[in-house]
Amino acid sequence: MSETTPAAEAAAPHRYTAALAADIESRWQDFWDEHQTFAAPNPIGDLAGDGESAKPKKFIMDMFPYPSGAGLHVGHPLGYIATDVFARFQRMTGHNVLHTLGFDAFGLPAEQHAVQTGEHPRVTTEAAMNNMKSQLRRLGLGHDKRRSFATIDPDYYKWTQWIFLQIFNSWYDPQADRARPIGELVEQFEKGDRRTPDGRAWAELTPVERDAVLGEYRLAYASESPVNWCPGLGTVLANEEVTADGRSERGNFPVFKAKLRQWMMRITAYADRLLTDLDALDWPEAIKLQQRNWIGRSEGAKVGFAVEGHPGEPITVFTTRPDTLFGATYMVLAPEHPLVDTVVPAAWPEGTKDAWTGGAATPAEAVAEYRRQAQSKSDVERQTEGKNKTGVFSGAYAVNPLTGTRVPVFVADYVLMGYGTGAIMAVPGQDERDWEFATVFDLPIIRTVRPPEGWEGEAYTGQGPAINSANDEIDLNGLEVADAKRKVIAYLEQRGIGEGTINFRLRDWLFSRQRYWGEPFPIVYDEDGVAHALPDSMLPLELPEVEDYSPRTFDPDDADTVPETPLSRNAEWVHVELDLGDGRGVRPYRRETNTMPNWAGSCWYELRYLDPHNDRQLVDPEIERYWMGPREGQPHGGVDLYVGGAEHAVLHLLYARFWSKVLFDLGHVSSVEPFHKLFNQGMIQAYVYRDSRGFPVPAAEVEERDGGWWYGGEQVKRELGKMGKSLKNAVTPDEIAAEYGADTLRLYEMAMGPLDVSRPWDTRAVVGQYRLLQRLWRNVVDETTGEVTVTGAEPDEDTLRALHKAIDGVRQDLEGLRFNTAIAKITELNNHLTKAGGPVPRSVAEPLVLLIAPLAPHIAEELWRRLGHDGSLAHEDLPVADPAYVVDETVTCVVQIKGKIKARLEVPPTISDADLEVQALADPAVVAALDGAGVRKVIVRAPKLVNIVPA
After folding, report:
1. Which domain holds residue 876?
2. Which CATH number fits the domain that encloses residue 764?
């Protein structure tokens, strides 16, 4: 514990205690603020500085924190402390370091609080931010506070809205492989260089028709789309916000598939680039793999199946196995597929099997009932129902383009609208799911790949020669899969019934939320329903006041409902008369009443850190190039180090990459990628104690005795899990700082283990780092008098070797984010000085203080000042090791004969194999062990091993 007895305090009034630590830490935090110690100068502009920007730069970032009303527990600052240590290290190795922290402040928790209490979400959000700022300041984090902001600041979300409009006013040109302004597309239509869908001249189209045409190209567009509708929350959700069992991640409400008009981002246009550019990023392979899988690139063919009675409306399928077309014996449409309503006939065709109809009198009734059933299932449920495949015959038939055979068209929920075209050609002989469906519905099964001998009763998905795959024009029989695919794709393209293509699993990004506490869309609609962008002069469009913050919620189980947003209730804000500067004068408009998702503000915040006070442009190009532009080893540019949790692999990280690429294409930034190096820190876990009911009990009040854990006289169970208020095991950084000091907390969190590994919190173990700081203090300051005790004497050779080995190792460890081993090396050097006794040489004490400064900055600053230096050591040079003292003077070499050790030699570490062999064979103990026997072979691994094989 940190407390000392009154007698001990009297005997050592200048001992490093929690009280002294608190005084030191508060004073130096004030000093850093007053002197703007961590202000990173830009090359130009209002944040330009003197000379620092001529140094090599380092841009270090933490993932945006959300300001929780509950405040921080000790698990939260793990990454923040780590980036602070790394940033301080970089400053001390000659870099101009940009390190700051803002707040991702729009979000559902504040809005839910507002719904419950009527208090404006800004009030609770700002209170939470102020509390978090206070907690983070106490940790001594060296942030450039001039650059901090929150996403809820109108000066910030003005530019979020501006970026949205850049995306809205852009389209993706496949030939140029980049985004281009929508005006260039309009010009192509006007000149006739690009045809309109129905062939009419652009001038002949009405404004509504032109808007519809452009909507098919815009990177941000509104469309009637299948969405995840959650009546219990009153909002739609992105796929990533829906759990595997089809419920909302927040609130655990049922989620249904519904068609609603929503804003979408055409992220799919960038699928190839998002995939390819991963290769040049310094990211954990696990994160890259998750993104690759999410994007889901696959090669195959699109094939059109003509539908009987519906000329010109074929069912288009995407298949990765076009070589199996001859085995397609039926088709399946997803329940949401738009062609379902088109192809369903009025009556069942003659010969329809009873098992196909679901017991309905007509195909329309059967399909409607089946859709209702499918609506309540999640995508995961639809994909994991095993052999219990369900479906219903649509009443329609299509024609296999290679065999001419009529194939029935089913509606089944094991096919998803969100993948491929939402329709499949079913080849039961070569696909397990199709086999299961065909077995249930008594459909033909034709194998198109020869299975191994004796293969029966199930689909064969392996390789082999094609069989049953020929007509009068093409014969695939005998070809292996790859050759058969190439041949059939060429045939399909020649006949105009298909084409080789690449498909992606990635879907367009749902960008609307039926919420109040989010960025308003800078979009208005005219009387014809055409969307218009607000001019830049009208940004930011600020949130209006509303009386009720709740979206209208419904019976959680009622899928037949539609959202009603809080913003829609402020009629004065919604219905406005504006002059948009388009030459049409003042006209009535209706504002968009959805808001942007909470991901919007975090898609570009790295850019705002660069130029936070710029009210004229997103970011000055010269400033952006300086901090984020491409350079050697970073061909796509980006932040030098980005630290955060692995849980954002396919949400924030993918979305931010998309926005960055659009801004790059449009010439607003030089960096193609936002984050060059990504590091995922582990989690600080804590023990959870549960009573006989399974409820958590306060961990701080649990006693350990008799080999068990007890609370209030009852034995409880212990398990390792997350730390949090709800689990009653949270420990706040304020508690630990009060007990031991913030420097001790910093050291403990960094010393617990490798940064990327999760580790259990143990308050009792914190004292180990506290004692390290006390020993460090005693090696410089007399605890009785408070005087500095270092001496001008030269250190002995052992101390010099200990010092320079520590310098060399700590520098390497800090560069590699191996903070736990850096602390171990500092501890080893400090212990060496403690054991040596007597005054510590100044030439050793000062480098030691500088070495620990990135990790425990407050005590380092205080000792540096007491050692006679002015100002802060934050920009002092980190010591550099003398190589002569880093290399051991001698190394112990083991000499073995027949695998048994016969001698140990002390040799120079640079000794050659030849010299080591001569020395080993001449050693008296080796000569005696050989006892005159000849030597058949000598294996030398200088400088540590010689293995002698006697003749």
Report:
1. 1-37+734-885
2. 1.10.730.10
